[in-house]
Amino acid sequence: xxxxxxxEAVVHEIHGARFVSxxxxxxxxxxxxxxxxxxxxxxxxxxxxxxxxxxFHLLSGELLMTLDGRTERIAAGDTVIINPGATLTVENPTExxxxxxxTTSIGLQAELADGTxxxxxxxx
Length: 124
Prior knowledge:
The protein is about 0% helix and about 50% strand. The protein has no helices and 12 strands.
């Protein structure tokens, strides 16, 4: 039985946020990836388009999420469904770190506005 202890989770930092990966092919997952995201106060991630569906659940804090040009304020307990091909921006305009849980399928890539494609190691 694959069990990933919190002490074994792999931490990645990019664009001012921290990603703590739990479910990946390296930890025994065959189809899905899951991670905790920590978005510090004042952080705004670059706009990006994803190639896989993501389920983004906010555990704590508040964020502004812009999905395909529509901005919503989301709060702890809210879930955002991000479909493949959607373009999003995540911003934390508050004074405290927001924490999220994200689940997606293996193979997620994000294309930035300048055409750069990022293959996040926590999602592959």
